[in-house]
Specification:
Blueprint lengths: L10 H12 L3 H5 L11 H16 L25 H13 L11 H4 L3 H57 L6 H66 L4 H207 L1
Length: 454
């Protein structure tokens, strides 16, 4: 963490970013490049730091005028000027280590320099840009997470609805359970009867097929015999035309022909009898076909009922497949959720490690600040001692002033008395001087009279 750095931005980029994303209103309009370079303005820099802290931590201006020392402070008026600067310094010392600035000083607030302020503002700008990026990413994560939660809720709702539908389809109401049992028993009886009828129909069909095969063979034999008869007639006609020589041979051949004709007639009679038998069997077969058609109608009715049952089972299977798909999606969402949790845990571990390192540095800074605050407390104690001495001296001065005032009053009284005495003495001296003058004038007159007599 100590080796990580950040880019130093140009002054124009810093001013543009501060005017667009940090300051607002008249402050953004009046903030210019001359506020930072060549000589930064301390008031503008302090207000800029205050606005940055207000943007990040929602600290209002009133928070900077709270005394960051002990509560019981005598003469808090002495700290009015230093309170906002010290509180801003403490909060900037807590904030700037996150921007990889670890050497923030009070001179950066009281008498900032251009390069130093550009360095600090570059670190702050890097942190603000990183913060905006992370806010956008977290907003995207929140949107995707909300969408996933909505999908999960919709899927769970669909699964619950499917379960309710399956329960409705699979469970038979108690009012219809007796009918269902009767229908099931009837279906089982009909299935047994249909299987038995199908077996009988299959056996009859096999017998009919065998009879048809025999009839076809017999018909083929009859056709062959008819063909043989026609050939024999042709040969007889030829032989009649050729027979001239031996009547005995003709008789023998005629007898043979008569025997063959008798045999053919007998075979025809047998075939006709068998055809009659086969016709009787065919009529029985037609009757069996009519019965079989009736059975087919029953089977069709049962097939319709079975189709309905199969359609319901297919619906149940579709719902089960939909439920399985929803469960798979839920598992996938759970896996994605687990992956996201794992990624969040990794990020949280990294953040905890970074926070531990930052906490150590904060502790160092806090210790430094505590030492500084201890020195400030010592200075405050010395100030309190000096204030106590000043109070004692002021008390002594007040006592002395009171004594002086009393002495002045006494002196005034004495001076008034002396003035009165002095006035009396002056008046008496004036009176005496006048009497002396009058006595001198009279003495001179007496002397002149005496000189005149003498």
């Amino acid at each position: 963490m100590s080796e990580n750095t950040f880019p130093i931005f140009k002054i124009d980029a810093i001013v543009a970013y501060i005017r667009s994303d940090v300051l607002t209103g008249q402050e953004a309009k009046h903030f210019t490049k001359s506020d930072i370079t060549p000589i930064p303005k301390p008031d503008v820099i302090r207000t800029l730091y205050m606005r940055i802290l207000q943007l990040l931590y929602r600290l209002g201006p009133e928070c900077y005028y709270v005394v960051p020392l002990d509560e019981n402070i005598q003469f808090p008026l002495l700290l009015e000027m230093a309170t906002p600067i010290m509180s801003l310094y403490v909060r900037m010392c807590q904030f700037l280590p996150m921007c990889f600035v670890y050497d923030f000083q009070t001179n950066d607030l009281l008498s900032p320099k251009a390069k130093r302020t550009i360095y600090i503002l570059s670190g702050i700008l890097n942190f603000l840009k990183f913060r905006n990026l992370r806010i956008e990413m977290t907003a995207e994560y929140q949107q995707t997470f909300r969408a996933d939660l909505d999908k999960q809720q919709a899927y769970t709702k669909g699964i619950k609805d499917g379960e309710k539908m399956t329960e409705k389809l699979t469970t038979i109401p108690p009012e219809q359970q007796a009918e269902a049992k009767e229908l099931a028993a009837a279906l089982s009886d009909l299935q047994n009867a249909t299987t038995h009828a199908c077996q009988e129909a299959n056996a009859i069909n096999q017998q009919v097929a065998e009879w048809k095969a025999e009839i076809a063979e017999r018909s083929q034999k009859l056709t062959q015999k008819k063909v043989d008869v026609t050939t024999l007639k042709e040969t007889i006609g030829k032989l009649k035309a050729q027979i001239v020589e031996s009547p005995e041979e003709l008789k023998n051949e005629m007898e043979k022909m008569k025997e063959k004709v008798k045999a053919i007639k007998n075979s025809k009679e047998n075939v006709n009898a068998r055809v009659v038998e086969w016709q009787i069997k065919v009529q029985a077969e037609t009757q069996s076909k009519a019965e079989f058609q009736n059975f087919n109608k029953l089977l069709r009715d049962l097939g319709v009922g079975m189709d309905k049952m199969n359609s319901q089972q297919e619906e149940i299977q579709v719902l089960e497949a939909h439920c399985e798909a929803m469960e798979k999606e839920m598992k996938n969402l759970g896996n994605e959720k687990g992956e996201l949790k794992w990624a969040l845990e990794r990020k949280m571990d990294k953040l905890t490690k970074q926070q531990i390192r930052r906490q150590r540095k904060r502790e160092m800074k806090d210790q430094h600040v505590q030492n500084f605050m201890g020195e400030c407390l010592q200075v405050n104690q010395k100030r309190e001692e000096i204030v106590d001495q000043i109070q004692d001296i002021s008390r002594e001065t007040q006592h002395i002033k009171a004594t002086i005032q009393g002495l002045r009053d006494v002196c005034r009284l004495d001076t008034d008395k002396a003035q009165a005495i002095y006035d009396r003495l002056l008046s008496s001296l004036d009176h005496y001087h006048k009497r002396i003058e009058s006595h001198v004038v009279q003495g001179n007159e007496d002397i002149m009279k005496m000189k005149a007599h003498y």
